[in-house]
Structures are given as structure tokens and as C-alpha cells.
Input
Amino acid sequence: MELLTRRPWERLAARAARPWSASQPTSLLFPLTWRGLLVGLLSAGALRLYGYGALDLVVFVVGNAGLALLALCGLAVGVAALVLRRRLRRGEAGAAGLATLDAGAWVRTGFALPDWRWLPLVALRWEWLEPAGVECRPHRLPERLAEEIRPTRRVLAHRLRRRVIAFDVFGLARAAFEHTAPAALTVLPDPGRLRQAPVVAALAGADGIPYPRGAPEGDRMEIRRYAPGDSVRDILWKTYARTRQLSVRRPERSALRSRRLVGYLVAGEGDEPAAAAARVALESGAFGEGWLFGADGTPAAAAELGPALEAIARSGEARGPTQLAAFLASREIEEGAHCVVFAPALAGPWVAEVARLARRHPGRISCVLGADGVARPRRPPPVWRRLFLEETPPAGAPAEELEEVTGELSRSGAPTLVVDRSSGRVSGQAALGAGL
Output
């Protein structure tokens, strides 16, 4: 459904109630929330004015019950948080057995906390603070709560930082503390439906396609008159027998991958599908032999699959302008090498930089843009629907923005391919083949 059933006034009420239920304390020694403080003040005030002042027995019982419940919740939550912090410092929660994960999939890490069902009114939960973008949920097992996580984007992390929260079911007390542990976590982008998509064939299927600005290293299809210096092996002897004229076969100018093929991942907003396309190309061997791969956030180029995948994961935290120019100017990149640039389908500062480099190095740069669908423009809903119902934004890259990006890259002479991770579709394959 495109329209949510939650109305604007319901969202305002939820936001107004959020500070009372989700406020976090500043110390484990004082775990009362704003709701707990309000209950304590109301109970104490009612006892002072009516319970003891007017000798109202009903208010006397209710007020003392409120204070007793508040004290019980605060004591139980504070003790639970202190015991949990001590156990985590001793390493009794288990190590997070993490290595290489795929984004978007739930996986159990090996971290677990005790499930204190005998402790009244207290519940536990925790969340990941570092690395960011990781959803976490507890999985109930006998006598313990096992951790399950789902990374939402690629990342390369060497430590984990969690916030553990103990709270009571009434929202009167809440105690939180942070726990840091070393770990080696590599989260790679989810390939989606690109595993069997023709993106790899598009990268590898350019052999023999004529390209006027390419190097003369294609199939021997061009025929011309013999000239001094030509190899005898290239002479067409059957043609000579018929015409008595010496002709030779010469390599047709094309963009064959007879020289080194390199790849580069440009980091930016919405770059997760492009990173997935780069991963699929690397793991399937679409770059052939003698390839190199670079990414934003990694200073050196990688020549093996393991370091290349780590560069993809590390690029998720890259900030600032792209380092594609430095990558092409490095000593490891040959003069005639062809570079396949993996980039997001959204516009950004990288578009002008890649276009400038494509004009500077004609015939040496091709682009693969990754997207999770294309969002077509829609007619605005009526006014009454906008007032009472919330419209979900269309998923995928905006069509107008995608056309602007592909147009700018095409005008610079960089053939462009667009891959859709959600459906596996590839568009612009012929244009990219002419550039590879």
C-alpha cells in the first residue's frame, strides 16, 4: 500500500509522548525516568495533602502503593544494570563471532545476556552504537537472550560499541550503559538479484566490438594493401592467388581487454547498489587477469579479491571528494588500462569529476550506475488525502535525476550502464560494450 494508515495527528501525539517514555538517565545510581519522577511527585503530594492531611484512606493506600512500586522498579532496574555491567566487563556475555556478513540479512553473533525471568518487572534490550546502521534484536533462548543483527549497509569495523538498557515494564525506571569490545567485522553489500543478472556479461562481453578511439588490438578484421614492415603471417595468400595483389589483415581498433582492466568504486549518497555491482563483478571474475581495484577511502589499489572486498566495505565510511584522479595517476595503473567506475545513480559532486576525467582520458573510462529501482514522477494526491493520510515516498532513484547523470556522463564520452539491484535488470548494455 502506498498510503499509511497513521494520520498526522497520531504522529504528533506519539512525538509528544516520546520524551516521557524514552528519556535516558544520566547515571546508574538514579535510574528514574521523567514518568517515574512524575508518579513519585504525584504520589508524595497526594499523601501530603490528602493521605495525612485529610486522612483519606483511599489516597493513603494508592499513594503508598505508587511510592512502593516506584522504589521497587528503581531498585530492580539499578541492580540489574550494575550486575550486567560487571558481567560484561568480565567477558561473561560471550564473544561476538563475526567475520564477513552480507547486509540485509539477520544473523546471530554469539553475544548473549541472561534472561532474568525471576526478576520482577525488569526487561533488557540493547542496541549498536558503533558501527552505525546495524539493527539489533534479542532472540529468546532458555535462560538467555541471544543477539541477532541485520546490517543495513556495508562497513568495516574493528570494534563494537553497544548500549545496554535495563527498564521496567511501566516505564518508571531506566538504566543504560555502554559496552565496547574489539571485533573484526566486515559487512559487504547485498547483491540482491545481481548474482544472476547480465551485469557480468556486460562487463566481459565487449570483445571484438569496433571502437574508433580504442587501441588496435582487436580481431584481425581490417584488410589493406601490403606495406614494407608487415608480417608475412598476416598476408592473405588466397586473395593473392586470385588477384595477384598482396593484402594483409590488420587488427581492428576496438576496446578489447587485452590490456589491464581496472575498477573503481565512487562513494556517495545511495551508493549501496553500486557497491553490490562491484562486488558481483569481482567475485565472478569479470575483470579477467591482472586487474586492479580501488575505492574511496582506500589509498592503495588492490590486486586480490580479499583486499578488494575490504576496500568496498571500507568505502561505506568514506567522506569528501572522490579520489579517482589519484587512482588513475598512480604508478600501478598502466597508460592504456581501461577503468570501470562504479557509482551511485544519484547526482553528486562525483559526476563533474568523473566527466572531467573522461574528457581528459578519452576511451579509458566507462561507468556502471547502481540503483534500487527507478522512481517515476507521480501526480500529487488531493488536498484531503495529504491532510488525513501520509503518502510514502517512491522507492528508487528519481528518473529525472538518473537521466541527468547519465546524460552528463555520456556527453563526456564515458559509456554508461545502469543496473537495478532490486530486479536484476541492466540498461545501456550496448553502450557500455562499445566502451569496454
Observations:
- The two ends are 42 Å apart (CA to CA).
- DSSP finds twelve helices and 19 strands in the chain.
- Residues 1-6, 15-26, 204-215, 429-436 have pLDDT under 50 and may be disordered.
